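USER:
I wish I could look at a protein chain and see how it folds. I am handing you a single protein, as its sequence and its fold in token form. As I understand it, each token names a local backbone shape. I hope you can help me see how the letters and the tokens relate. The protein I mean follows directly.
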Amino acid sequence: MVDSEILSYYQRIDEANRLARGGGHFEFARMQDLIRRFLPPPPGVVLDVGGGPGRYSFWLAEEGYDVHLIDPVDKHVRQARQASASQAGHPLASATEGDARSLSHSDGSADAVLLMGPLYHLTARDDRLSALREAHRVLKPGGLLVAKAINRFASLLDGLREGFIDDPNFVPILHHDLKDGQHRGHPGGPGYFTTAFFHRPEELEAEVLEMEFDQPGLYAVQGPGLMVTDLEARMSDPGKRAQLLDLIRSVEQETTLLGVSTHFVVVATK
């Protein structure tokens, strides 16, 4: 279902804890803020497609939604099932291996679909459109889509911030990303992520519109927030955390800043 290099990458890394620290913690908090604003109140059926080990799925289950996690990585599905079995009051409705391009759920069965991983691991445009078409099919009329992408300039921003531009293995990856968005990591070396497609904001919006979704809104996830030099400490301080999130919310739709956000999302309805 998925490129073998992508599967190998997720077997190696600790995706279960990525969103619990540093930039991942900030990303999770921003996505919670966005989802809360647009998701209809519980009860409701949510499909977390490409949901990994289930960080968002378990949060939404605790909020009162019936959450079905679908992911192509068997390790992630096992982790989600084990965690769900230990949940006393808020287990997942299901956790299954699956492909965003061919969902097993019925037409019009979901109140919301989260595509917060598949679109950047489907490197061919036709495959991304297939995933969006499936999301449209399984949504109820008026149902919510949250579609997430990685920014075309993410490698440039990371390379400058982290000093990766001094690594000769990284520079060709960066140039390829800037040329056409087709990102390929370096499996024999330090990695630098895995096989992916990095969108321009207008490309993601156009793909969502092509699949006949309505009222798309384009939002930066991190925005310029990763410029903060003490991010871990700031996210651990309630007052400073609230201030940072408020500031990023105030510029989340500023088109001139979308290019400095590692991720952005389109929120739309069927």
Notes: The CA atoms of residues 120 and 268 lie 18 Å apart. The two ends are 26 Å apart (CA to CA). The first strand starts at residue 45 and ends at 49.
